[in-house]
Design a protein that fits this description.
- The C terminus is likely disordered.
- Helix 3 crosses helix 4 and helix 3 crosses helix 6.
- The strands form two sheets. This protein has a four-stranded mixed beta sheet. It has a two-stranded antiparallel sheet with strand order 2-3.
- The relative contact order is 0.07.
- It is an alpha+beta fold and about 250 residues long.
- Helices cover about 45% and strands about 15% of the residues.
């Protein structure tokens, strides 16, 4: 089990030596203890960000600890880095310098491979949108797919359901686009309307756009056919009373 060290958001004091506020501390029996009192004061902090350096420093260090900090917005603890032995960090840095060029080339190849995979998936997602919503313009479908599938965005296109192109996930992406681009949703939010209330107000308008996109562009519904005015039939000229020739004056007129 990993040792866990906390970067506190508020000032904490050591329960043993009373020093503080502490930049980092452990929890022992539910109370904070400084690194010196926990026999971790000789370790150095390695921030996250370099995966190879972190892995090598951890492997070379006989004693190490994970450093975490609470993210209030997300409501969870997130990893910030490691505490490792200084000698282990030095050996890890030397090893990383020795193969820096090879790792850089590998990162470039990996980045190119991920970019190509993202392009393919965006095209597949756009095709799926067009299949479910044939009335959606092609450019709009491509834009929705690119937005929903952006790597690292956390949007619906990056979820398991989105990656497998499930209808519910694809529809959610299209609905979100219509909400923001085809309605006054953003203006309602800026006016202080609560998110759920704004969505409820515009649900019918969004559903109408989605319903129109589910039909082909040249497809007309029965309501449109019924509403089309009927063209009047041509009328033949009145021949007049029997015995009259067309164009002759009416009786009693000269």
């Amino acid at each position: 089990m990993d040792l866990v060290v906390i970067q506190p958001l508020k000032g904490r004091h050591c329960a043993e030596c009373r020093r503080g506020p502490l930049p980092m501390h452990l929890l022992e029996s539910g109370v904070p203890v400084c690194l010196d009192c926990a026999d971790l004061g000789h370790l150095v902090f390695l921030p996250r960000g370099d995966a190879a350096l972190t892995r090598r420093a951890r492997e070379a260090s006989a004693l190490w600890a994970v450093v975490i900090r609470h993210n209030r917005r997300r409501g969870r603890y997130e990893r910030q880095g490691l505490l490792v032995e200084e000698s282990a960090l030095a050996r890890a840095e030397s090893a990383c310098l020795a193969d820096a060029d090879a790792r850089r080339r590998r990162r470039e190849r990996d980045a190119a491979r991920r970019a190509a995979a993202d392009v393919r998936f965006a095209a597949e997602l756009a095709a799926r949108i067009r299949k479910l919503f044939p009335g959606c313009p092609e450019e709009r479908a491509a834009g929705i797919a690119a937005h929903a599938s952006a790597r690292g965005s956390g949007r619906v296109g990056r979820t398991a359901a989105g990656r497998s192109l499930q209808e519910g996930a694809v529809t959610a992406a299209v609905r979100a686009s219509v909400r923001h681009l085809d309605t006054g949703y953003d203006a309602l939010l800026m006016a202080g309307v609560a998110r759920k209330e704004a969505r409820a107000r515009l649900a019918g308008e969004i559903d109408a756009v989605l319903a129109s996109w589910r039909r082909l562009p040249d497809e007309t519904g029965p309501a449109q056919d019924a509403a089309e005015p009927q063209r009047p039939l041509p009328q033949e000229p009145d021949p007049g009373p029997p015995g009259m020739v067309s164009g002759s004056p009416a009786p009693g007129r000269p």
